[in-house]
Amino acid sequence: MIVSMENTTTSAIDKKLNQLRDQHGVVTLGRVLTLVILAQAGHSEAALEAANFASHEHPCRILVHVAHSQAESTRLDAQLRMGGDAGASEVIVLHGYGELAEPTETLFSALLLPDAPIVAWWPHEVPPPSPHTSSIAGIAHRRITDSARSDDAFETLAELSARYVPGDTDLAWTRVTNWRIQLAAVLDQAEPAPVREVVVEGSGRSPSVVLLGTWLGTRLDAEVTFVNNAGPRRLDRVTLVRDDGEIVLERPGRTVAMLRQPGQPDQQIAMPVRDLNACIAEELRRLDPDEVYGEVVTTGLRDVRVAQVVDTTGELTPGAARFLAEHGGGRPDQDRPGPAAPDDAADVVLDLPGQEPAGARSAEPSVPAPGEESA
Question: What are the tens digits of pLDDT across the range 97-111?
Answer without folding.
Answer: 999 998 888 899 999
